[in-house]
TrEMBL record:
<keyword id="KW-0732">Signal</keyword>
<dbReference type="InterPro" id="IPR051477">
    <property type="entry name" value="Expansin_CellWall"/>
</dbReference>
<dbReference type="InterPro" id="IPR049818">
    <property type="entry name" value="Expansin_EXLX1-like"/>
</dbReference>
<protein>
    <submittedName>
        <fullName>Extracellular endoglucanase, expansin</fullName>
    </submittedName>
</protein>
<feature type="signal peptide">
    <location>
        <begin position="1"/>
        <end position="25"/>
    </location>
</feature>
<dbReference type="InterPro" id="IPR036749">
    <property type="entry name" value="Expansin_CBD_sf"/>
</dbReference>
<dbReference type="InterPro" id="IPR036908">
    <property type="entry name" value="RlpA-like_sf"/>
</dbReference>
Length: 232
């Protein structure tokens, strides 16, 4: 009887292992794909990260990898370590590569030339998300048209990709929707300073305060300094 029970338990355990869903990939897993190059992405990129220095190494990223974990523009503003035939470099994600296959990047020429031959036009690459090589605290971009009634807020200068942003009102944290253009949206945010809670791709959470929003919609975007940064 004991042998039969043991056999039954073994079969059940085997079935559980076989039918359990696979664990999701880690944010910094190694991706494989290809790289092309382009001169765009410094101004007017999909993620509205202007101004971007003209000598910075940047990239556009394919849609599948951009929307990590089902979050729109999850890897916008992140940094990637990219390896090609000639070596490695680190690039800043500023734009979308709409026709790119999973794993594909469209690099700036100065980044492409570090890891491959320009004459090839397209090379095999491997890449992963890395901690941003930055200093200081967050900066917040308040999009034009924002007010106490409707606002779109972007987090900049973050060490790790930003997945979630919430604000505190009436005793509770309210989730803000992340957009394809890398801003967090909400309505009726109130007339006082805005307490926010921001979560990175590792699940690390920090809290900050943003000065009160304009009473009426702004005609231009503006930035305000933050007071915190994600932990190491």
């Amino acid at each position: 009887m004991k042998k039969k029970m043991s056999a039954v338990i073994s079969v059940v355990m085997l079935m559980i292992l076989c039918f359990c869903p696979q664990a999701s990939a880690a944010y910094n897993d190694l991706h494989e794909g290809y790289a092309t190059y382009t001169g765009s992405g410094y101004s007017g990129g999909t993620f509205l990260l202007d101004p971007i220095p003209s000598d910075m190494e940047i990239t556009a990223i394919n849609p599948k990898d951009l929307n990590y974990g089902g979050v729109k523009a999850a890897l916008a503003g992140s940094y990637l370590e990219v390896e090609g035939p000639k070596g490695k470099t680190i690039v800043y994600v500023t734009d979308l590569y709409p026709e790119g296959a999973p794993g594909a990047l469209d690099l700036s020429p100065n980044a492409f030339s570090k890891i491959g031959a320009m004459k090839d036009g397209k090379i095999k690459i491997k890449w992963r998300v890395v901690k941003a090589p930055i200093t200081g605290n967050f900066t917040y971009r308040i999009k034009e048209g924002s007010s106490q009634w409707w606002a779109a807020i972007q987090v900049r200068n973050h060490k790790y990709p930003v997945m979630k942003m919430e604000y505190y009102k009436d005793g509770k944290w309210i989730n803000m929707e992340k957009t394809d253009y890398n801003h967090f949206l909400s309505t009726n945010l109130g007339t006082g300073s805005l307490k926010v809670r921001i979560t990175d791709i590792r699940g690390k959470v920090v809290k900050d305060t943003i000065p009160k929003l304009p009473e009426n919609g702004t005609s231009k975007s503006y930035t305000v300094p933050g007071h915190v940064q994600f932990p190491e």
